[in-house]
Amino acid sequence: MNVSKKQATIGFIIIFSCLSVIFYLIVPIFIPYSTPCDVDYISEGEYTGCYLVSPVWGRVMIIDENSNIKWQNHREEFFIHDSDILPNGNILIGDTSNNRVIEVDINDPSKILWSWDALNSFHINWTEFSFEQGWTDLSFLENQNSLLVSWTLINDVDFINGSMFGRNYDSILLSLNNLNLVIEVNYSETREIVWSYGQPTNINILYHQHNPDRYPNGNTVICDSGNHRIIEINTTTKEIVWEFKLEFPHGKLRVARDCDDIGNGLRLITDSGNNRLLVYDMNSQSLIKEIKSPWFANPYDADMLDNGNILVSNLLTDTILIVDYETGLILRIIGFPYKWVVPYTLILTAIVYNSIQLFKTLKTSERKKLRKLLDFQLYRRIVYIVCGILSLYFFNAIITFLWIFNVQG
Ligand SMILES: [Ca+2]
Ligand SMILES: [Ca+2]
Ligand SMILES: [Ca+2]
User: Fold this and answer.
1) N or C: which end of the chain has fewer CB within 10 A?
2) CATH of the domain at 325
């Protein structure tokens, strides 16, 4: 049967329309989460061996390694970036779109047991706080009711056990990304801000930071993403004791989002926009490892697991990866990169089609043996095939670059 070019084109459009409907409208209904920001491995308690996932869209949830939902929040949330399990077993959530942090009852997710609300004047009087800090420019206060997704954009919440630092109260460390500000709130008693770093209108201190962590040595490490650096500050004096930047030939940090102390003086860094993880040795003050993978698609968070592998949340492909620390090989993919099926199928189809055409050209060429290589048609097909293979390999890197470019504008 001879199929005309027109018929082939119509068939092609129908097939890809059906695939698009299946993978963009139907499959997502059955996928438990999408666009995971922070992911934590749970190493103790009832959910040991599971993962706490904070997806940008949907519910904060606990899943097992087969993506079965073991627990989920009562409400659909919007723009969630981070959640943590508290020592009492409850879930602390950075409720980003509502500009607040909430503690949800693990036994009854409909119950909010504690909250800190950035728009609640009983929890924080911003004007008073700003004057206390000596900030003269208060223009940022005008935007509290702006139409942005979130005025503050809370993108990190950590519980800090006060007894580890000689305090008689526990606290919550918070990153307010839009305000270029990190604050620490008294969790046990007053909800007041007990510490802060950054200033909304001075982007030289912090600029759209991610993931502040209080290290065991008492210092605070912050990914100062917009300034392409990571800093460690003495929490008391606020003096910078370590600044990590990269230059040629490593390429500057592009939206660094995570920097974990993984022991032996090593720090595991997530350089999201460059689709890579880095390991920095504080002893030798040098970069000792770069882990890259074509599977990385804007990795948001990386944690060292007890077994020596790395847990990575892969923001753009809706997956969580277990990565071999030594080789960078992907040992396990949790979740399904459903959004990638249609573009991958398109590229694969193009590769197969051009391979068939290449074969046909070789067969029908009137030139003999190696002289067939002089046929122009042949080169056209080879170029298409090579471009197809390269775009498959670099697909995640290209999408991440476009995404970061778009977000950072
Ligand atoms: Ca977390
Ligand atoms: Ca953190
Ligand atoms: Ca981490």
Assistant:
1) N
2) 2.130.10.10
Looking at the structure, do residues 184 and 87 belong to the same domain, yes or no?
yes
Q: What is the pLDDT of residues 114-166, one digit of tens each?
A: 999 999 999 999 999 999 999 988 988 988 887 778 999 999 999 999 999 99
Answer whether 96's CB lies under 8 Å from 153's CB: yes
Residue 404 class from Cβ within 10 Å (0-12 exposed, 13-18 middle, 19+ buried)? Answer: middle
In this structure, are residues 121 and 135 in contact, taking their beta carbons and an 8 Å threshold? no
Secondary element (H or E) of residue 364:
helix 341-364
d(CA 156, ligand 2 centre) in Å: 6
Question: Of all helices (H) and strands (E), which one includes residue 131?
Answer: helix 126-133
Closest CA to 314 of 105, 61, 37: 37
101 vs 148: CA distance, rounded Å:
18
Residue 168 predicted with pLDDT over 50: yes
The ligand whose atoms approach the alpha carbon of 213 most closely is 2
Residues 219 and 260 in one domain: yes
Tell me which residue of 260, 296, 295, 290 sits closest to 277, measured CA to CA: 290
Both 310 and 358 in one domain: the answer is no
Q: 174-195 burial, b for 16+ CB within 10 Å, e for fewer?
A: bbbbbbbbbbbbbbeeebebbb
- Global pTM reads 0.91
| The amino acid at 253 | L
Ligand nearest to the CA of 60: 1
What are the tens digits of pLDDT across the range 3-62?
788 888 898 899 999 999 999 999 988 888 889 999 999 999 999 999 999 999 889 999
| CA 376 to centroid of ligand 2, rounded, Å | 57
- What's the pLDDT score for residue 360? 86
My answer on whether omega of the bond before 249 falls inside 30° of 0, hence cis, is yes
For residue 218, tell me if it sits in a domain.
yes
Single out the residue in 312, 337, 362 at which a domain terminates: 337
Ligand nearest the Cα of residue 300 is 3
Q: Domain range for residue 85?
A: 35-337
153 and 302 part of one domain = yes
Sorted by sequence, the CB contacts under 8 Å of residue 213 that are 6+ apart come out as 158, 173, 220, 221, 222, 259, 260, 261
307, 337, 367 - which closes a domain: 337
Helices 395-408, 376-393: inter-axial angle, 10-degree rounding? 60
Structural domain total, the chain: 2
